[in-house]
Amino acid sequence: MFENVRIVLVNTSHPGNIGSVARAMKTMGLYKLYLVSPKLFPHDKANELASGALDVLGQAIVVETLEEAIADCHVVVGTSTRSRTIPWPLLTPRTCAEQIMAQPKEVNAAIVFGREQTGLTNEELHRCHFHVSIPSNPDYSSLNIAAAVQVLTYELRVASMAHPEISTWDYELANNEALEGLYEHLERVLVQLEFLNPKAPRQLMTRLKRLFNRTQLDVMEMNILRGILGAVEKRIK
Amino acid sequence: MFENVRIVLVNTSHPGNIGSVARAMKTMGLYKLYLVSPKLFPHDKANELASGALDVLGQAIVVETLEEAIADCHVVVGTSTRSRTIPWPLLTPRTCAEQIMAQPKEVNAAIVFGREQTGLTNEELHRCHFHVSIPSNPDYSSLNIAAAVQVLTYELRVASMAHPEISTWDYELANNEALEGLYEHLERVLVQLEFLNPKAPRQLMTRLKRLFNRTQLDVMEMNILRGILGAVEKRIK
Fold first, then answer.
1. Pick from A24, A190, A227, B113: CA 20 to 30 A from residue B6's CA?
2. Is A231 in contact with B164 (Cβ distance < 8 A)?
3. Which of B43, B17, B18, B113 lies closest to A51, judged by CA?
4. pLDDT of residue B163
5. What DSSP character marks residue B13?
6. What residues contact residue B141 under an 8 Å CB cut-off, 6+ apart?
7. What average pLDDT does the segment A135-163 reach?
8. How far is residue A145's CA from residue A155's CA, in Å, rounded to a whole number?
């Protein structure tokens, strides 16, 4: 049911947490786990805490960078507790689950979890299309990572039972690799236009990324934007 | 907020689980923990896994029987995964939370969790007014006890929030007049770039409008886009 939804853990310190996450995932019917540079994996402690979810651990995919883990994803949601300098589209666990379950089947979605102590970096959070924050006690909001995975995957399961209407669209969504290509192209052109000063970039690219990330570009729109950038480059050379 | 809601754990085997439950509770703002004949408590492992929720452990009330733990309660909900010989009023985590939060303040509510391996006995379940079952993977429904507490207390917290979180943004949204200005400017530049042929416009502007309409541009983003268009115009003249 959740073939196209993956859980991504970035730089997890404790292998036990990886095992607990696998267990939490499987109880809700999720099997796709990506591990970005885990400190210790595979590990006995991970196996022990995975309990009956050893299969999830066994097929976990280990990669070096977050970029690799989400390259073929169309919807990327980062978990965040801190408020950021630039606000990002913020979902609740429920709206996050509804949004993911409302996508057509071909859409790959990722929910990204950061380090136990420090979460995701700003740069990592800016790679995400949306952020999700679990409501919590303002005096103590420190959910264990497996507990956070449990809540978000529970909401996915509940949303999957609701049979939400699938919105129809004419083209498939552009994936994250295509988005990264757009941003590189856009940045190059803005520098050539002298609109962006590489020595004082300020928040320009961050704001543009936030804009297009939340828009959920389809492949036709992506082609149009790349086409416009190409046409600009041709004229200013 | 949840002064009248308690979590009751029956015959917990692993003290680490008691600690994890305390942590899960506190993250959602619950502080009242009742322990019915725990195997080992207090215990270092419980303290370790409680992390920042030592206060919840410290004020936990240890009793001999479930009867004592729920004596002064008005609503008692038992967690159950098995279907029972006699059907019982069965709640989902969401309806359970809504039902508890809809009670007057004087009403004491308890959510009761059974043993790690075997759950609650039939006799214990029959002491409960309602049962609650967390939706799960039919192939593997074995939630860790702290994970189950996390899901149910999360739903309590969501139900308690009369006004759902509004995400904050740094700039106000651009109005429709500003959007129309953007589209005119964009169209003018695309014609100058010879990317748009006014005699055969096809769906180009329609697609671009759909894109920016759904994005909900803020005024800063609007300024950036107008700035980029201005910079392009300057260079191609």
1. A24
2. no
3. B17
4. 43
5. S
6. A27, B81
7. 94
8. 16
Query: Tens digits of per-residue pLDDT, B42-87?
Result: 999 999 999 999 999 999 999 999 999 999 888 899 998 766 666 7
List CB contacts (< 8 A) between A142 and chain B. Answer: 23, 27, 51-52
Q: Inter-chain contact B143–A24, Cβ cutoff 8 Å? A: yes
Closest residue, chain A, to B19 (C-alpha): A144
Architecture in CATH for domain B176-236: Orthogonal Bundle (1.10)
Q: What is the pLDDT of residue B164?
A: 46
Distance to chain B for A62, nearest Cα, Å: 24
CA-based nearest distance B1→chain A, Å? 10
Kindly report, residue by residue over B5-32, the tens digit of the pLDDT. 999 999 999 999 999 999 999 999 999 9
pLDDT digits (tens, 9 = 90+) for A216-237: 899 999 999 999 999 999 998 8
Contact B164 A20 (CB under 8 A): no
Mean pLDDT of A175-202: 96
Per DSSP, A137 falls in state: B
- Interface contact flag, B165 A133, Cβ < 8 Å: yes
Q: Which residue spans of chain B are classified as CATH 1.10.8.590?
A: 176-236
What whole-number distance in Å separates Cα of residue B26 and Cα of residue A140?
7
Whether the ipTM is more than 0.85: the answer is no
Tell me which chain B residues have a C-beta less than 8 angstroms from the C-beta of A154: 93, 134-135, 151, 154
Sign for the pseudo-dihedral over CA of A141, A147, A148, A150: negative
Dist. CA A78–CA A89, nearest whole Å: 10
Mean predicted confidence (pLDDT) in A155-173: 78
Q: What percent of chain B has pLDDT over 90?
A: 71
The CA distance from A142 to the nearest CA of chain B, in Å, is 6
- Is pLDDT at A165 greater than 50 in this prediction? no
**Facing B146 at nearest CB: one of A136, A147, A204:** A147
C-alpha distances in Å from residue B1, one per residue of A215, B54, B159 = 38, 19, 11
Mutation pick from A27, A189, A217 vs chain B, by most beta carbons of B within 10 Å, is A27
pLDDT of A93 over the 60 cut: yes
Separation of alpha carbons B152 and B134, rounded Å: 8
Is the CB of A221 less than 8 angstroms away from the CB of B211?
A: yes
pLDDT at residue A73 is higher than 90: yes
Every domain of chain B with CATH number 3.40.1280.10 lies at: 5-160
8 Å CB contact of A214 and B215: yes
Q: Tell me the C-alpha distance between B203 and B205, whole Å.
A: 6
Q: What is the mean pLDDT of chain B?
A: 91
